[in-house]
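User: I'll paste a sequence; please echo it back and then give the predicted structure.

Assistant: Echoing your sequence first, then the prediction.
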Amino acid sequence: MKNEHTLLGYFVGNLSLSIRKSFDSLFADHNIDLTKEQWVVLKGLINNGPLTQTQITQFSHKDKTTITRAIDSLAKNEYVVRTTCPEDRRVHIVKLTENGRKIMEYMAPFIEERMREAVSFIDRRRV
């Protein structure tokens, strides 16, 4: 049984790495300056509206440093804006810009297809 769990962990880790590399390649193929981590932030904003950086960290399961770096790059590319919460100046609210929305709309069909390809070989009866 231990070997099955070890193999499953190995498989999931490799699948995750392959998907990240695949996303990076997909964005590069379309001349989009975006990483998978940045895409996760944009996807969260599309689905939920404006969020605090802490909320983004929580739903993305990424550390604060990774999210801060992703948001910095997204802001530099004008895909998001970061504002200070009027009630608590320590809190930053991240909002999707029109440029960010356009990038997500443009890339959505390509990303959906890539995700279908990534999981197409999984035997759902065995999962």
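The longest helix spans residues 2-29. The helical segments are 2-29, 36-48, 53-60, 64-76, 98-119.
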